[in-house]
Amino acid sequence: KAADLMQFFSEGQTPSLDGFLLKQDIAVGEQINGDMLISPNDEQFFIESVDKNEVAFRVYVKVENQFLLDTLKAGDIVSLYAQQPDYQASRENREGLRFDELLKNLMILKVERFIQNDETPQDSIYKNYVGYISLKMPAEQLLSIFKLPQKRDLLVLPKEDKPIKDINSRGLSIRALRG
Questions:
Q1: pTM of the model
Q2: Alpha helix stretches (DSSP H) within 13-130
Q3: For the residues of 41-62, what is the DSSP string, one character each?
Q4: pLDDT tens, 88-132?
């Protein structure tokens, strides 16, 4: 049966089982064959991976963030961020965007890149976005996303183990002025 799995890898163009689901429980030491696996590209994948009180939420990826489609894969644990206007900064006559972490520890179900060809519909979704990332999240967490203002962008980033250090942009500006 191990030969069946090697054939599965060569046909499926996948180097590992990361992100795959098993159709049934297996015992320790039991061999896995291709018939036992559900690929992240399979339609059955979403049905089997989302529990009763969970949803698969799509985050559309803009062209400037297409690196996410190259970097992330099904099974990765990520955080969801919202980039939105900073109204406090606008009151102080300076431009600015807030970058807020909305949700943590979300699992990626699927990473899909849109393929552009002559048969691609000319919808705005294909003009403005290069793909999407489907995230598995509890249904009650959707409310925090829908409470956001319409002028916001959602961004999926890998889970950060250590706190992000802020850049001292004031110091950079002073150095730039000094030459």
A1: 0.67
A2: 44-49, 67-71, 87-91, 124-128
A3: TSTHHHHHHS-TTEEEEEEEEE
A4: 655 555 567 777 888 999 999 888 888 876 665 666 676 788 999
